[in-house]
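Dock flavin-adenine dinucleotide; give full complex structure.
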Amino acid sequence: MIALYHIIAQKSRILSRMKGKIIDKKEIATGTLQVTFAAAEPFTFKAGQYVFVTLINPPYFDERSSKRHFSIVNSPDEKGIITIATRLRDSGFKKSLKELPVGAEVELGSISGSFVLPDDTAKPLVFIAGGIGITPYMSMLKYAAENKLPYRITLVYSNRDSSSSAYLQELANFKAQMSNFKLILTMTEDPDWSGEKRKIDAGFIKEYFPDLNENLYFVVGPPPMVEAVQKALLEAGVDIENISIENFTGY
Ligand SMILES: Cc1cc2nc3c(=O)[nH]c(=O)nc-3n(C[C@H](O)[C@H](O)[C@H](O)COP(=O)(O)OP(=O)(O)OC[C@H]3O[C@@H](n4cnc5c(N)ncnc54)[C@H](O)[C@@H]3O)c2cc1C
């Protein structure tokens, strides 16, 4: 199954490269920046895919280049723009992205990836996000809501605390709007949070998803989180065929 994904990834290269421009920037949670680019040419993508962003004449040098890949946050139906969200860090790339003004030119593309909604809408989907790993799910949820797609989706969103959790209000809006969408928030280091506080382990999975292999599981986040959650799913008894992962290398 995972091998198949790589084959599809090669085939779904939709956009080579083109110019773009920063049209909006805002801090959407503590240490988390959202940036929207306007694309110079029309393009298409599938919800869940990622894009390479290359900064042009960045103010800071980065030995790892001025290019990074980011999952696209907006829905494919929002034409002509690409929105990303990222944790601010000390890398030359991130310092430059924070400093570049609205109007600054960038290079966008290519767009790729096989971490997308399954064609089969029958099986319930369990989206598991660790921190900034929420980004591809925002695109999928917007797309599913806009097109009234019959997916039954449960999102498990794990963060340290609510102040650094991006898109809480948007997710609450989806919950109000979509009867087939459930939201489980867990804050693992937030003394003011009265809700779920546990990390996602096998016990957590078995408790929230008693019909274990009735679901398809998707896991996104920093590699250590993805590895730990994948291990927890397997320990709980989930078949590997029912698990898809997207590792945000670099965290
Ligand atoms: C498919 C995909 C989607 C992504 N989507 C997002 C997103 O939506 N939002 C977001 O914030 N980030 C996303 N990322 C991660 C992003 O590309 C950056 O790697 C990350 O944001 C860290 O960048 P940085 O400049 O802060 O750190 P960097 O300076 O780039 O990296 C920090 C440290 O990680 C190490 N490192 C970086 N990349 C790798 C690698 N590939 N393998 C091993 N070590 C590495 C570096 O050596 C460095 O020590 C995604 C990554 C992938 C693969």
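Observed: The CA atoms of residues 22 and 237 lie 45 Å apart.
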